[in-house]
Amino acid sequence: PGNSLMKHYLQFKDFRAEEYAYLFERARLIKRRFKNYERYQPLADRTLAMIFEKASTRTRVSFEAGMYQMGGSVVHLTTGDSQLGRSEPIEDSARVISRMTDLVMIRTFEHTKIEAFAAHSRVPVINGLTNEFHPCQIMADLFTYLEHRAPVGANGYDLGCLKGKVVAWVGDGNNMANTWLQAAEILGFTVHVSTPSGYEVNPQVAGIRSSDCYKVFADPHEACRDADLVTTDVWTSMGFEAENEARRAAFADWCVDAEMMAVAKPDALFMHCLPAHRGEEVTAEVIDGPQSVVWDEAENRMHVQKALMEYLLLGRIG
Ligand code: CP
Ligand code: NVA
């Protein structure tokens, strides 16, 4: 393992629009093979290490099932059952784990931790969520949007159809919000952001070049007006549990409900990265309603991540 062309995937902006077009086309083909029970095992003899410092359902299942389907194997580590929880330096862990595996996925707290790991890793590192970013999720969300709304051309989905679209972000200025802003800047759409005061997105943390890719709205209904996609997330992200009570009070008006969906475009989709809390950030009517594509969104984590792992390990196919 180890080569000079090695890429990591730590933030959405690590890839260009043209790389996303390629990845979405690979994901589409890989998904089709999966649905047809066609064996596709280009990652035989490759090993993915997955390091979880926070809980997960979707990220674990999608990476683990995806890697096995592609012929590889996985090693699952958590803080509690590895030396990571007994203060072995992250740099040392990176040196060791990356000498025995081909690819590493990490879910952790501060983004600086995954950067430190990547800086000492011999193999590509994938961000499976940090306090600041969740790029694999936004890749799945965009793929889901394209599946539902874009025609398939000779080269797959035309990412040009995302230009000028409006994504309404209702809720916390968190890792998902930051990643949406990066995606908007790269792919040419606009995010209408509405957060309670004190929970705004911070463009510096989001790592965007300019503020052209988003607009701020005090009223969440206004953020949803004429949106092509309405999306939200938990009020309290992992690692922020101590703020739970204060957040419940502050976020009470940031519940995506039928009224918000009614002011969005008639064909607007609803997305949520999950896990969801019905009656908090979204009503049951909306998340279980006809505009919601949350189950496709969850499933697509696996298909886009299979394309991502293939790309990081084998480069472009064909
Ligand atoms: N959306 C998402 O990343 O889910 P998990 O926390 O279950 O992995
Ligand atoms: N913002 C949430 C996303 C969970 C997938 C969190 O960080 O906990």
From TrEMBL:
GO terms for molecular function: amino acid binding; ornithine carbamoyltransferase activity. Pfam families: OTCace (PF00185), OTCace_N (PF02729). It is an enzyme of class 2 (transferase). Residues 163-312 form the Aspartate/ornithine carbamoyltransferase Asp/Orn-binding domain. Its EC number is 2.1.3.3. Reversibly catalyzes the transfer of the carbamoyl group from carbamoyl phosphate (CP) to the N(epsilon) atom of ornithine (ORN) to produce L-citrulline. One of its GO terms (cellular component) is cytoplasm. HAMAP family: OTCase. Transmembrane segments: none annotated. It is found in: Cytoplasm. GO terms for biological process: citrulline biosynthetic process; L-arginine biosynthetic process via ornithine. L-ornithine binds at N175, D233, S237, M238. Belongs to the aspartate/ornithine carbamoyltransferase superfamily. OTCase family. Signal peptide: none annotated. Its main location: cytoplasm. This is Ornithine carbamoyltransferase.
